[in-house]
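QUALITY CONTROL LOG
STEP: pairwise intake check
CHECKER ROLE: data steward
CRITERIA: each record must contain a sequence immediately followed by its structure tokens, with no blank fields

ENTRY 1 OF 2
RESULT FIELD BELOW
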Amino acid sequence: MTGRPAPAVLPPSLRARLGLVAALAALVVAGLAVLYAGHGEPGRVDRWIIQPTADSVRPPWRYVAVAVDFLGEPTGSAMVVVAAVTGCLLLRRPRAAVLMVAGPGLAVGTATLLKHLVGRTIHGADNLSYPSGHTTFLTAFTFVAALLATDRLGLGPTAGTSLVLAAALVAGAAMGWAEVALGAHYPTDALGGWCTALAVVPATAWLIDRIADRLADAGPRARR
């Protein structure tokens, strides 16, 4: 007996649309990287939005910003990932559990690598800023959660894509606001982090599905 195949973490109906989104997001990440490579000051767009060189939010909103920021810290991110993985396993979604770890992990790893390659700084040469790792993490995590919700709700291509992108936008905007409000990043750092997640997570989901499908197909052949 082979059992029922595990549901794909990247629904086939969403692959083309999210693949296009990933490609466009990668272009934005690359474009901003070239534009701000080696810079240590806010750009024109950053200055137009807000001056991100000092804390720009006061209580009680500052407490909200600190709470959101905590979700991107190692302790906070580990807590939400462990909780999400546990939920995926309880729902019998092993691929989703893997993506809950691999998606945000690879996205943040990509953001960290880009920081060293781009060399943009804020508040001194030791503080690499582009792209925002916190924004990358929360966007990637929410993206994966929205993919699982799309599958559970049985949404079609338009509704599913809308849900995933809306959830990612809300998460990225919330963390981006917190990072800029606390003076930790420029607005364009947050945009770069958001786009990094949009570029990495669909590719990671597709790869997980490919590997899982091949392993599932290899099992019956090995028993022949």
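ENTRY 2 OF 2
RESULT FIELD BELOW
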Amino acid sequence: MTNCRPILLSDDHVARVASAQGPLHDPRWRMLEDADLDLLADRLTQDRPRPIPVFAYGSLIWNPGFAVGARRRATAIGWHRRFSISLEHFRGTPERPGLMLALASGGSCEGLVLDIAQGTEAQSLRAILRRELVAHELSANACWIEVETDRGREEALTFYADPIGTQLAELTVEDQARRLARASGAAGSGAEYLLRTVRGLAEHGIHDDYIWTLQQLVAEEIEAGTDGADE
């Protein structure tokens, strides 16, 4: 971990991003039903360790949405954070597209391993998979990756490591910032998501140079008046 730079993006910046109405999900998707989620959970966790470890690197850090039994710092081996999934729904619209955070091959990144509380596996996995994978078209975006913790090397379940079946946007960090500063949709703005993520990381003593650079650039974009309010 490097020395943590200040968080410049703020609630005031987020409030300056104009809200937008749009679809919560891609209307072409075939949504996963409970039975689909349970089958997928069984396939992903068969013969895997208990408690089930989930590697969190973005929103699962600040909003896990399932019963967490324990959490510990972890470093994903061979992966780094990148806002690479293009969104025209959720936190974006066709007119003001957003970006979703994923893992990309290469390097490493620090996050948390969240152990699913024992005795809650069925409901917790259903909740995680419904939230993260949503639809049949996205159901391949769960995998086990190698992480380093205070216990040594282990594997953990994670989501969107080299995303499959999604529209990707290969943008420079400056262009990512311009898009996130404008993006908004049914679930809120890109700036809000980024702010919650950087605060979640900081709360656990995790610093990612890429995320800190991005939040600074998004704050500067919004201050310059490019928040999308007039678009």
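INTAKE CHECK: passed for both entries
DESCRIPTIVE NOTE, ENTRY 2: Helices lie at 11-15, 34-45, 59-62, 121-132, 173-182, 190-203, 209-223.
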